[in-house]
Q: What sequence folds into this?
């Protein structure tokens, strides 16, 4: 049954339809996993010149500000737990990976619950990065820490929310977008209806879609049709996984433990209400409060244009560092570090 | 990073369970799917938590896609 999502005949038919499209389209894929899939399936080469796909800010590692890494590095004598992706992101004074050599204790965890288990014996700070896919699990872990009275565990929050990121991009007048490929697994949590503001407030369409070539091409075709007919809406092409309302239980726990707050995005600066912070009731689990840390906006390394890449202002090869000094083996900016970063995906697939 | 990985639920114990990821078994949190979950279901797991229940077909498709994209086992024993 599932072969239909890679059926060459079907891909050919959709591609033929797309080739007839004449409306200029700038479509942003928000999610890093979509960026990877588009590269891997060679989707760009199937599209006419009128349709351009722009990679967006949907890689949590890529949008985590430099100061987040710098603040983590201040935590001497504490065990820092992080998901693997963050280890090689350079801060002002290098990466967490390299800081291990000078005595910083950094442990890679697969789940926040592992960090909580470790906190039975020692002080642990979990690097709290992620969008709505990752956030409910961390929120639940904070709740469990509170329930069990654990005093050693805390989270350094740098959570981001996807809808607000989209609004910011649409409010910026220098990037013109007329459609979004909306993330699959973030939408499992927030649901299709979280994007209703796109057609209502911005007259832009969106399609929640999966990661197979037919998923992606169908979504692009739907966005072209919406633009041609002037009828933007939010469609769900990933109904086999995503519902209209999302995962209510996950949303409930997120709201119980966290609240909307301003957040600093690497490359975009501080955006009002675009993140989630830990509610006062749970402040003893907030590493910002517990250790007096602060996440601020800072300048990028000279020449690195990750900020422009994240906003879709330029494609990775337009950055002077791309594939010259910045490569996956020796990344300068975060978009090259994470395998789902736009620069890493371009390096691997689009050259 | 927002990738969720399919696993087959082989045991349920309160709000936790044991899921099989291609031979590697891991504990997973079931809080977000408690209402409908049953033993034998395929679940989409992200950072140790089941985020959604999915069909057999979707599970196979996602496993294949992950395999091709990363050429590595998504989860290692630890």
A:
């Amino acid at each position: 049954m599932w072969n239909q999502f890679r059926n060459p005949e079907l891909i050919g038919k959709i591609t033929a339809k797309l080739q007839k499209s004449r409306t200029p389209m700038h479509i942003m894929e928000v999610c890093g996993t979509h960026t990877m899939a588009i590269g891997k399936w060679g989707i760009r080469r199937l599209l006419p010149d009128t349709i351009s796909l722009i990679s967006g800010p949907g890689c949590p590692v890529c949008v985590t500000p430099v100061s987040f890494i710098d603040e983590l590095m201040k935590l001497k004598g504490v065990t820092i737990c992080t998901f693997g992706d963050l280890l090689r992101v350079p801060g002002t004074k290098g990466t967490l990976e390299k800081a291990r050599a000078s005595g910083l204790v950094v442990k890679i965890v697969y789940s926040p619950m592992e960090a909580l288990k470790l906190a039975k014996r020692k002080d642990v700070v979990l690097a709290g990065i992620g969008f709505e896919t990752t956030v409910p699990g961390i929120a639940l872990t904070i709740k469990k820490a509170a329930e069990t009275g654990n005093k050693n565990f805390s989270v350094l929050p740098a959570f981001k929310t996807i809808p607000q990121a989209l609004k910011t991009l649409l409010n910026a007048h220098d990037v013109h977008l007329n459609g979004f490929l909306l993330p699959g697994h973030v939408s499992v949590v927030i649901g299709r209806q979280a994007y209703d503001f796109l057609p209502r407030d911005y007259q832009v369409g969106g399609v929640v879609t999966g990661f197979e070539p037919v998923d992606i091409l169908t979504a692009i075709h739907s966005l072209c049709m919406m633009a041609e007919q002037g009828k933007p809406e939010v469609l769900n092409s990933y109904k086999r996984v995503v519902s209209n309302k999302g995962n209510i239980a996950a949303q409930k726990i997120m709201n119980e433990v966290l609240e909307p707050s301003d957040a600093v995005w690497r490359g975009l600066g501080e955006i009002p209400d675009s993140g989630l912070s830990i509610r006062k009731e749970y402040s003893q689990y907030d590493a910002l409060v517990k250790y007096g840390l602060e996440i601020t906006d800072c300048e990028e390394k000279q020449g690195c244009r990750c900020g422009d890449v994240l906003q879709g202002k330029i494609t990775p090869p337009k950055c002077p560092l791309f594939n010259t000094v910045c490569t996956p083996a020796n990344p300068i900016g975060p978009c090259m570090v994470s395998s789902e970063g736009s620069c890493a995906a371009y390096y691997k697939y689009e050259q | 990073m927002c990738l969720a990985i399919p696993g087959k639920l082989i045991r349920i114990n309160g709000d936790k369970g044991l899921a099989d990821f291609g031979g590697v078994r891991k504990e997973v949190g079931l809080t977000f799917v408690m209402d409908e979950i049953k033993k034998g279901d395929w679940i989409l797991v992200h950072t140790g938590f089941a985020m959604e229940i999915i069909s057999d077909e979707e599970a196979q498709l996602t496993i294949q896609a992950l395999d091709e994209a990363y050429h590595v086992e998504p989860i290692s024993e630890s």
About this structure: Confidence is low (pLDDT under 50) at residues 72-78 of chain B. Chain B has one domain: 5-70.
